[in-house]
Amino acid sequence: MKKTIIIRVLLVFAIFLLASSFYYLPYYVSKPGMAKELEPIIEVEDGYDEVGNFMLTTVRMGRANIYSYITAKLMDYVELYPMEDIRVENETDEEYNIRQLHLMDSSKTAAIEVAYKKAGVPVDYRYNGVYVLHVVPGMPAEGKLKAADRIFKVDDIEFNNSEEFIKYVSSLKAGDQISLAYERNNKIHHVSMNVEAFKDADNKEKVGIGIGLVDDKEIIVKPAVKVKTDEIGGPSAGFMFSLEIYNQLTELDLTKGYEIAGTGTIATDGTVGKIGGIEQKVIAADHAGADIFLAPNENGAKDSNYQAAVLTAKDIGTDMKIIPINSFDEAVDYLEKLKQKK
Question: Which domains does the chain have, with CATH numbers?
Answer without folding.
Answer: 2-82+103-122+225-337 (3.30.230.10), 124-219 (2.30.42.10)
